[in-house]
Amino acid sequence: MVMADIAGLAASAAGGGIFGLIGSVVGRAANLVERRQEQAQERARWEHETRLMDLQMQARRAASADDLRLADVTGGWQGLAASIAAEEAIGESYAWVNAVRGLTRPGLTVLLWVITGLVFLGSGAAARGEIVETATFAATAATLWWFGDRGPRREPR
Questions:
Q1: Distance between CA atoms of 112 and 136, rounded to whole angstroms?
Q2: What dihedral do alpha carbons 121, 125, 130, 133 form, nearest 10°?
Q3: What is the 3-state secondary structure (H, E, C) of 33-64?
Q4: Does the predicted model carry a pTM greater than 0.85?
Q5: Distances (CA, A) of 105 to 24, 78, 145
Q6: Residue 10 and residue 5: Cα distance in Å, rounded?
Q7: Which stretches of 69-153 are assigned E, i.e. beta strand?
């Protein structure tokens, strides 16, 4: 019996060791799977935060561009209003002074469009693009600036 007790004790020790080793391996494997899941979740959170920051930067860029366009348009209208107010402040003068002053803008506009036409006709095909674009921009801007708000004024009732 002693031999049977020793064999039973050895079998119990071996069985307990094997089960302990299996439990330890299973625990390590579970810990490894858990850490991988945590890392994947952390990576997904970082990617989400990165996308969110990109969207916020795009929104800020769009808002900045909108603010810049608004400031540009506002400045243009303020310049036009100041120009009209300055002309109204001149008041009436001699008839020939009023005639010369009244013909200055139309004369300059016609001259600017004639210069634009001459540049277009006189420039070669290679140089035509940018030069004509600049001259056309200047002529159009001058025409609209000088005559853009020249409609009859309504008197308040």
A1: 9
A2: 40
A3: HHHHHHHHHHHHHHHHHHHHHHHHHHHHHHHH
A4: no
A5: 95, 20, 10
A6: 8
A7: none
